[in-house]
Write a structure and sequence with these properties.
The complex is a heterotrimer of chains A (204), B (672) and C (414). Chain A is mostly helical. Chain A has one domain: Four Helix Bundle (Hemerythrin (Met), subunit A) (Up-down Bundle). Chain A is built from 6 helices and no strands. Chain A starts with 24 loop residues before the first helix and ends with a helix. With 672 residues, chain B is mainly alpha-helical. Chain B has one domain: Cytochrome c oxidase-like, subunit I domain (Cytochrome C Oxidase, Chain A, Up-down Bundle), CATH 1.20.210.10. In chain B, strands 1-2 form a two-stranded antiparallel sheet. Chain B has 21 helices and 2 strands. Chain C is of the alpha+beta class and 414 residues long. Chain C has 9 helices and 12 strands. A 5-stranded mixed beta sheet of chain C has the order 3-2-1-5-8. In chain C, a hairpin with a 2-residue loop joins strand 1 and strand 2. Classes of the chains: A mainly alpha (204), B mainly alpha (672), C alpha+beta (414). At the B-C interface, helix 5, helix 9, helix 10, helix 11 and helix 12 of B face helix 1, helix 2, helix 3 and strand 7 of C.
Chain lengths: 204, 672, 414
């Protein structure tokens, strides 16, 4: 392994711009950040699993408040936003700025619809007597889904920023990667929701 | 938040004269005290990490002396129970989060880019932000002393003792929010450093040619990347409980205290390894220099570090052997913990084997390395004794554990850092620390350290509990406590000697020649460049051919392993003379401003909401300004865009053009 | 001067190393012999089968660790002495050392050997863990509950699996157990996490609120065994101690029978006045069985943990306030018989020093009034507590007359 010849072939590396892994710094950073986020959600999902049911007599439990069809619909909306996100990335890679903007708008709108659904859902639950402090279940539920909702909201802000950049002509094709990176985040948030939806709403 | 920065740029060769002004004609940018506030240079940031950590080390050290003074005799009256609880909580928190971790970060920031031949880290402004956020978190945490008292729940902050019912003062809020802020710093730092190691190595430097310190930085930053969010999730729960009345740890509502314990230690145990690994890395790089032999079993050293990194995730519940997790869990975690001793033992034996047959120069850094190996061995062995779970039921939460982890973290990590300070001081500051004082420093620290923490083994086995502000005569505690207190003050005087040495050596250095690039006849490429490191690091960036590349530029090896000088040091080192037209990222105010907003939000959460608003606006505004600011020149328009058509080589020109565009219109993603 | 400096330096180095060796030898000596002295919290002198089990497991581990410790440190010292650069490096003409990069067989060896040693330890550990967690037949069932900052005990006397039947017994601060019979503990907490630990009898077990953890004790000999809360539990964590009185089985049965009795009626005027003062000042938190059960059931104590120590048989205990003060005069040094008077009011000199809390008060000796009176006068001054937050006993502002009659009444609570 100490063969001095080994290094020679590497001269072919461009000394400045290419990264050793071939993945750009920014994209690699996003991947790492998302890896870290997995553990953050992991902690909150674990908490929810431990606190899935309130103690008897301490307010409504999951089966009392959940409206599965409604949440399924809003989950579907969020899932569809991943599709539009893919289309946005593919549009900028083709250099189709109009479609890019259209799909960014679509993604942001679908995301907003999901957040709106969550706000509606929270309001409905609150009216049924499930406050944040009511029980361990309510704290864990609002904590986990609310935290996810904040992530979606941040994603929407990122999408709108991309849209504004594009409208100002500051998002040329060769920077398609920044849209792709926003897309990575967006898909991650969607994926996490699938997990949360399954754990919180579907698994009894 | 993740803000993208352009890849760093190197342009070599002659440039038009105006170009030289690009970096060096901005005095406010690279010199003077103001430059430190806006610098994005990994070296300045590394130095600031180190200086800040040493400052907090003094605070944490004073807290330690208060603890030891209180325990000098039975029924001590220096501190009352409440004060004592605050002092030991803040001592632990300070030493872990504001001293050992940031010293690791200091070395990682300063050294790692040099060891891999990089111009800077991957995201220089995020690097600056990481530092300022760490400092902001540290100041926030310690501001509690002036705003109603420090946290009083122990650094592990077990719920429900940490909930409002049992700790109604704001101390724990300061702890919680302060560590969330330093957590942001750690997380952004970890992402940054990992990307740097993975992506920005000099040509030819494959992973298995990296110096061990860089390897250990990589492993420990991965640990940080995955450990911090677990603590963050637990801290959210505590934050919601304390500040918004949630029911996570309210036992009356079915809250589970063990949930906090699990989450905390899933963070807490990898944390232990991420504190020790950078010091292991330093020792692995310094030991061969003064043994004049390559590290023995580089591959094993590296992979045992990686193994520790992985296994560190599977042993957290050994902190909970007595918590009632059930015999099966105890069994599993007990066995897992025993076997993590194996890779650690491999490291110790490899270091020992490195010295065998060498020609050992007992310099101050070498002494500290040997100190680490021996003291860590003791800490490791006591660790094995409490991996035996039934034994741990007698030992846990006694002074035996206090002895154990101080042997690991002070005898291990801190001795390694001291070795690093003495070794790298000339590279960083351009003058050597006085060797005689350095050796005296080592022996004083060695004696003080053993006198402080050695007796704690006996105290623990004789049944002295941890975290007690008072004890009674007649239990056999008096003598050993007295010894430990004497030791603590000796230890403090050794730190004072170190600080004296810094200033003494600096004053003497005026009359001495520059130590040159390579004062120790060292092995790794950071010793190729002038001391102190020039702002641009390498020019040109070397092509790395093998492990210890710099060494093998100086020496050849015959078939039977004898060394032959093949070049003089002067021939293979780089000179500071001449022009170095290296394009560097430009300073920025915004990382600092963004970080300042964070503690203001924190004070707002505790005292009054409108401070949250101010802090939030400050941070958000700074991030916005950051986003709009070109990464590589704050004096927009002045002498900028020098590359257009002027780059000497086509290859570079292409990349320059790319960067310029990237610079002209920065895009920013705000994430999380 | 240079020579002088280097001699001085050498002396300092040798002195440091000698100090290091002396310290460690001293510590090992203390570790080996320390258990044989009278240190009541030591983990090194097991007094029951469970602590002996632990001791038998850990002793060889300590020996192995000691051998490795001496071996590694000795080897490093030898290597340094042998391979260090001697003399003036400027004049040193010896060639650079042979360059070795590693040795795979050696690596595998020193990976395998520690792993093999640890495998043996692992097997022994596994066996001991299972032994220690096994249920003991014919054991005394006791619920142990921790609060800030004292311990309470409930005995399941009739073995119905509950700790609150009529015939069951509740006491606090001191745990009384029969010698030679296993005691099965159900450890829990009423507020924060504490940890129950009698080093001489077994390791520790956390008392976690909302959770009941099994643990067990057994003493081979009659005696007094001390403990200390070992999970940080807030302000007075240091003052939360435990005390176990192990007594012969027949004495234990008599003790249980005594504890089952309700408190006696006051007889003298002072005692009667004391009872009424007690009801007014103490009865809203403390319970004396047969006196204020009704009152407390209707108005539970305004305490975070729900209750204050049960005082029904206060005078059957030798210590109070988390065992940090002596309620009675202790025996003389060296006599750790848990019960049986060793002095009277007239022969106090036959007792030990009551201010020395390393000597446990003996319930059959005279009451040590100064500590009790000081406690009634201003409890938070005697032990840091947070009464304003419902955690601990407040300063009741009692007059000396009130204190006198209350003490007179309390003295009847045998």
């Amino acid at each position: 392994m100490f063969d001095p010849e080994v290094g020679k072939g590497v001269e072919a590396f461009h000394p400045t711009h290419d990264t050793n892994t071939g993945i750009s710094n920014t994209k690699l950073a996003m991947w790492l950040f998302l890896g870290s986020e997995c553990l953050l959600f992991g902690g909150l999902i674990t908490t929810y699993l431990v606190y899935k049911y309130p103690l008897p007599g301490q307010g409504p439990g999951p089966q009392d408040v959940f409206d599965i069809p409604f949440t399924s619909a809003s989950s579907f909306v969020l899932l569809m936003s991943s599709l539009t996100m893919v289309l946005a990335v593919s549009a900028i890679e083709r250099g189709d700025h109009h479609r890019l903007r259209a799909w960014l708008v679509a993604t942001a709108l679908l995301g907003s619809a999901f957040v709106a659904g969550q706000v509606y859902e929270f309001t409905a639950f609150y009216n049924e007597g499930l406050g944040f402090t009511t029980s361990r279940f309510s704290s864990a539920f609002y904590g986990l889904t609310g935290f996810h909702g904040v992530h979606v909201t941040v994603g929407i802000i990122m999408l709108v920023s991309m849209l504004l950049l594009s409208l100002r002509g500051k998002l040329p094709e060769h920077k398609a990667e920044s849209v792709e990176i926003v897309g990575l985040y967006w898909h991650f948030v969607d994926l996490v929701w699938i997990l949360i939806f399954a754990v919180v709403y579907l698994i009894p | 938040m993740t803000v993208t920065d352009a890849p760093l740029e190197l342009t070599s060769g002659d440039e038009p004269p105006r170009r030289t002004l690009g970096v060096f004609a901005r005095p406010t940018a690279s010199t003077g005290w103001r430059s430190w506030f806006t610098s994005v240079d990994h070296k300045k940031i590394g130095v600031m990490y180190g200086a800040t950590a040493l400052f907090f080390f003094i605070i944490g050290g004073v807290e330690a002396l208060l603890i030891r003074a209180q325990l000098w005799a039975p029924r001590g009256t220096l501190l009352n129970a409440d004060q004592y609880n605050q002092v030991f909580t803040m001592h632990g928190t300070t030493m872990i989060f504001l001293v050992v971790m940031p010293i690791g970060a200091a070395f990682a920031n300063y050294l790692m880019p040099l060891q891999i031949g990089a111009r800077d880290v991957a995201f220089p402004r995020i690097n600056a932000f990481s530092f300022w956020a760490f400092l902001a978190g540290g100041i926030f945490l310690n501001s509690s002393w002036f705003l109603g008292g420090g946290a009083d729940g122990g650094w592990f902050m077990y719920a429900p003792n940490s909930t409002v019912t049992f700790s109604p003062s704001n101390g724990i809020d300061f702890w919680n929010i302060g560590l969330l802020i330093t957590g942001i710093a750690s997380l952004t730092g970890a992402v940054n450093l990992i990307v740097t190691v993975l992506n920005m190595r000099a040509p030819g430097m494959t992973l298995m040619k990296m110096p061990v310190f860089t390897w250990m930085t990589l492993v420990s930053q991965f640990l940080l990347l995955f450990a911090i969010p677990v603590l963050t999730s637990a801290q959210f729960l505590l934050l919601f409980d304390r500040n918004f009345d949630a029911a996570f740890f309210d036992v009356a509502k079915g809250g589970q205290p063990l949930l906090w314990e699990h989450l905390f230690w899933i963070f807490g145990h990898p944390e232990v390894y991420l504190m020790i690994l950078p010091a292991f890395g330093l020792v692995s790089d310094i030991l061969p220099v003064f043994s004049r032999k390559p590290i023995f079993g580089y591959t094993f050293i590296v992979f045992s570090g990686v193994a520790i990194g992985f296994m560190g995730w599977g042993v957290w519940a050994h902190h909970m052997f007595v918590s009632g997790i059930g015999p099966v869990s105890v069994l599993v975690f007990s066995l897992a913990t025993m076997f993590i001793a194996v890779p650690t033992g491999v490291k110790i034996l490899n270091w020992t084997a490195t010295m065998v047959g060498g020609k050992i120069k007992l310099t101050a850094p070498m002494l500290f390395c040997i100190g680490l190996i021996t003291m860590f061995t003791i800490g490791g062995l006591s660790g094995v004794t409490h991996s035996v779970a039934p034994a741990d039921t007698q030992q846990t939460d006694t002074y035996y554990i206090v002895a154990h982890f101080h042997y690991v973290l002070f005898g291990g990590a801190f001795f390694g850092f001291m070795a690093g300070f003495y070794f790298y001081w000339p590279k960083v500051f351009g003058y050597l620390l006085n060797e005689k004082l350095g050796k005296a420093n080592f022996w004083l620290m060695f004696v003080g350290f053993n006198l402080t923490f050695g007796p704690m083994h006996v105290l623990g086995l004789q049944g002295m509990s941890r975290r007690i502000y008072t004890y009674d005569a007649g239990y056999g505690f008096e003598f050993w406590n007295r010894l430990a207190t004497i030791g603590a003050f000796l230890l403090a005087s050794s730190i004072a000697l170190f600080i004296f040495n810094i200033f003494y050596s600096k004053s003497k250095a005026k009359n001495l020649p520059n130590p040159g690039p390579d004062p120790w006849d060292a092995r790794t490429i950071e010793w190729m460049i002038p001391s102190p490191t020039p702002v641009y690091n390498f020019d040109p960036v070397p092509t790395v051919e093998r492990l210890d590349d710099f060494w093998y530029r100086k020496y050849g090896e015959t078939e039977d392993g004898r060394l032959v000088r093949i070049a003089s040091t002067e021939e293979v080192t780089q000179s500071a003379e001449g022009e170095h037209n290296v394009h560097l990222p430009s300073p920025s105010y915004w990382p600092l401003v963004a970080a300042i907003g964070l503690p203001i939000i924190g004070w707002g959460l505790i005292f009054t909401w409108w401070l949250c608003l101010i802090g939030g606006l400050l941070t958000a505004g700074a991030l916005y300004a950051w986003a709009l600011e070109p990464p590589d020149d704050p004096e927009a328009g002045h002498d900028h865009h020098p590359h257009e058509g002027s780059a000497p080589e086509g290859e570079v020109a292409v990349s320059d053009a790319e960067t310029d565009e990237a610079g002209a219109d920065r895009e920013v993603e705000t994430v999380g | 001067m240079k020579r002088f400096n280097s001699t001085l330096g050498r002396i300092a180095i040798v002195a440091s190393l000698v100090l290091f060796v002396v310290l460690w030898v001293g510590m090992v000596v203390a570790g080996v012999t320390g258990g044989e002295t009278e240190y009541q919290l030591t983990t090194l002198q097991p007094q029951g089968p469970f602590s002996t089990l632990i001791d038998n497991l850990v002793a060889p581990v300590f020996i192995i660790a000691g051998v490795v410790f001496v071996g590694v440190l000795g080897a490093i010292f030898y290597i340094i002495m042998k391979y260090r650069e001697k003399g003036d490096p400027e004049l040193d003409l010896t060639p650079m050392p042979k360059q070795t990069h590693g040795h795979t067989a050696a690596e595998i060896t020193w990976t395998a050997i520690p792993a093999a040693i640890l495998a043996v330890v692992a097997v022994l550990t596994a066996v001991t863990i299972l032994d220690l967690s096994a249920e003991e037949p014919d054991s005394v069932q006791v619920e142990v509950f921790g609060q800030q900052w004292w311990w309470g005990y409930r005995y399941d006397v009739n073995n119905d699996g509950r700790f609150d039947s009529d015939s069951d017994v509740e006491t606090s601060t001191e745990l009384v157990i029969p010698v030679g019979r296993p005691v099965q503990l159900s450890v829990t907490s009423n507020d924060v996490i504490h940890s129950f630990w009698i080093p001489a009898l077994n390791g520790k077990r956390d008392a976690v609120p909302g959770m009941v953890s099994p643990w067990k004790l057994q003493a081979d000999e009659p005696g007094v065994y001390r403990g200390q809360c070992t999970e940080f539990c807030g302000l007075s964590h240091a003052n939360m101690r435990m005390l176990v009185r192990a007594i012969p089985a027949e004495d234990f049965d008599r003790w249980v029978a005594d504890q089952q009795k309700p408190a006696p009626e006051p007889v003298t005027e002072a005692e009667k006045a004391g009872l009424s003062e007690w009801k007014n000042n103490c009865g809203s938190c403390h319970l004396i069985d047969g006196v204020n059960n009704q009152q407390l059931a209707e108005n539970p104590a305004a305490l975070v943990s729900g209750i204050a120590p049960n005082l029904t048989h206060l005078m059957s205990r030798g210590t109070f306030a988390g065992s940090i003060y002596n309620l009675h005069y202790p025996n003389k040094v060296g006599n750790d018989q848990p019960f049986g008077a060793t002095c009277t009011r007239d022969t106090l000199a036959d007792c030990g020093d009551p201010a020395d809390v390393a000597l446990a008060g003996n319930p059959d000796n005279p009451v040590y009034r100064p500590a009790l009176e000081a406690w009634l006068r201003n409890a938070p001054a005697m032990k840091p507590m947070a009464p304003d937050q419902g955690r601990g006993m407040p300063n009741l502002g009692l007059t000396q007359d009130q204190i006198d009659v209350i003490v007179a009444y309390l003295e009847t609570l045998k």
